[in-house]
Q: What sequence folds into this?
């Protein structure tokens, strides 16, 4: 709609952090930004008094998984407990009340990552609860899985089956090489079609309606652009494209297929280009690839500079997907092809290897007089050595952080591996002060945590270092604040990371990320001013109205 919005506190998120009181919307773009008395609205424009409310540029979720959320709708939530017997009793009872004909495959989420030792759970433990059909339990980190013997058999995985990525994406095995039932990362996905064929069943497909249910909830929280950090399901892209054709897509979408090694990079580039040709358009783009460089701190397979504290041999420094030399070659190929890169990393060694690879690739490109064309994003970066904090700014690397992890969401599950290093995790203050581009995200993967995709919830956790849903023990951590309190991020920095900086990651700064003349009229009118609200109550801030490219897609004006 064409409109003239006045009497507001409009945070433009432009380079000067301008605050205006009026914005004109014409043909889906910002036609004016400034003081109301300096503009005459276009004929026919709707005049809207904002009543003094605060307005932000449309928020960007720069690393999330709407497809995984939509696919998880049939998953079963486990009780929130650290009691193994309670979990197994729940699983057993669920199987007893839902026959194999009704539920031929059971997928439960989540069990605590710290429930077992380093060797993980066993299939025999799960067999005692259910053995008549395949069963999978996903751990809280989303990077490990526990399955029963029936599922291992139907996957066709034996002692002779090679792991997809030894040390990272793998089946944990006993002394004889037999799979124990504990799976790291998504190793089972390489064999899942065998199981589905054997049981003559498939999970419900992602449809336009199931995807719309997820995107509309995110839109209602003020999100007008997102980056899907792993495209696994082409049906989901077809669904998103269908929503776009129907005028029901409430945000811009960018996604990334995955590659694992230099050997499959060319295929991944071809896939990205094919997907972009098939589904891409003004609001949908696929021009980035995803790489998992290491695992997780909670599973003990992150890549760290110093050995894990619980390793008696003082030799275990985790796992890494590729060394700096191979990553450098991948970066050179991507730079030639003009495809951006988004890298999962959590350990300080992974961070350093990635910095070294970017630095080397940039030097090699400069040596032959070619331009550096690509944007590289480091996602998560949970543990960074202090010596490397300034490198992203120097290299032009974008850092992406999931704000709602800033408190106690993963508890102390990484402390057993990292020891005192746990206390300096999740500290991005030096990154922000260095001038690096720092984007923010939700990284939600299931329907059960979709409420945490609310950017204002994440802002609250990052501004307080305390998680209202999953607080740390207040007896050990006063007010449940995760160390260190000085790592709290300011509201201004959090909003910038959800707007201007996130737009840079998505290569959208010419159209999104700030409210400036000529850019998309995508904005959020808020119930309260996040700059004056108690940081511990930021999650209560609500969008009164969300406008996407000039159209109100949530709430009302």
A:
């Amino acid at each position: 709609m064409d409109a003239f919005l006045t009497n507001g506190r409009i945070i433009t998120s432009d380079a000067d952090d301008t605050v205006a009181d009026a914005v004109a919307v014409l043909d889906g773009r910002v036609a004016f930004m400034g003081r109301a008395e300096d503009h005459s609205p276009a004929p026919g424009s709707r005049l809207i008094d904002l009543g003094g409310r605060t307005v932000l540029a449309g928020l960007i979720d720069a690393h999330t998984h709407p497809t995984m959320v939509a696919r998880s709708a049939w998953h079963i939530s486990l009780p929130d407990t650290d009691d193994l017997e309670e979990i197994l009793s729940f699983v057993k009872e669920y199987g007893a009340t839902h026959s194999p004909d009704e539920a031929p495959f059971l997928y439960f989420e989540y069990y605590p990552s710290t429930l077992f030792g380093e060797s993980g759970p066993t299939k025999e433990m799960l067999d005692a609860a259910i053995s008549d059909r395949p069963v999978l339990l996903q751990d809280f980190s989303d990077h490990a899985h526990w399955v029963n013997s029936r599922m291992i058999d139907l996957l066709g995985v034996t002692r002779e089956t090679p792991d997809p990525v030894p040390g990272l994406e793998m089946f944990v095995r006993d002394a004889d090489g037999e799979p124990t039932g504990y799976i790291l990362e998504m190793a089972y996905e390489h064999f899942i079609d065998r199981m589905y064929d054997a049981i003559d069943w498939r999970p419900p497909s992602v449809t336009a309606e199931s995807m719309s249910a997820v995107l509309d909830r995110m839109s209602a929280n003020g999100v007008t652009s997102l980056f899907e950090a792993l495209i696994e399901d082409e049906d989901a892209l077809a669904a998103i494209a269908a929503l776009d054709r129907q005028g029901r897509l409430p945000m811009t979408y960018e996604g990334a297929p995955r590659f694992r090694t230099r050997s499959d990079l060319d295929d991944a580039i071809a896939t990205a280009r094919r997907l972009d040709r098939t589904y891409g358009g003004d609001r949908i783009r696929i021009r980035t690839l995803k790489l998992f460089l290491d695992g997780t701190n909670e599973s003990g397979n992150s890549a760290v500079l110093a050995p894990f504290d619980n390793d008696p041999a003082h030799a275990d420094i985790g796992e890494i997907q590729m060394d700096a030399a191979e990553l450098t070659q991948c970066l050179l190929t991507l730079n030639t092809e003009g495809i951006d890169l988004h890298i999962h990393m959590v350990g300080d060694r992974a961070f350093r290897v990635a910095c070294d690879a970017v630095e080397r690739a940039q030097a090699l490109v400069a040596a032959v007089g070619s331009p550096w064309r690509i944007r590289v994003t480091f996602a998560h970066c949970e543990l960074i050595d202090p010596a490397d904090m300034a490198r992203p700014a120097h290299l032009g690397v974008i850092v992406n952080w999931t704000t709602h992890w800033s408190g106690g969401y993963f508890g102390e599950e990484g402390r057993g591996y990292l020891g005192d290093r746990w206390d300096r995790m999740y500290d991005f203050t030096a990154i922000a002060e260095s001038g690096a581009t720092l984007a923010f995200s939700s990284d939600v993967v299931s329907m059960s945590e979709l409420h945490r995709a609310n950017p204002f919830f994440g802002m609250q956790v990052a501004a307080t270092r305390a998680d209202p849903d999953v607080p740390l023990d207040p007896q050990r951590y006063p007010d449940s604040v995760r160390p260190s309190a000085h790592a709290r991020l300011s509201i201004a920095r959090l909003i910038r990371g959800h707007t201007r900086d996130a737009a840079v990651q998505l290569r959208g700064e010419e159209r999104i990320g700030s409210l400036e003349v000529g850019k998309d009229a995508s904005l959020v009118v808020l119930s309260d001013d996040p700059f004056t609200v108690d940081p511990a109550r930021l999650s209560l801030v609500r969008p009164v109205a969300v406008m996407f490219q000039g159209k109100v897609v949530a709430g009302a004006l």
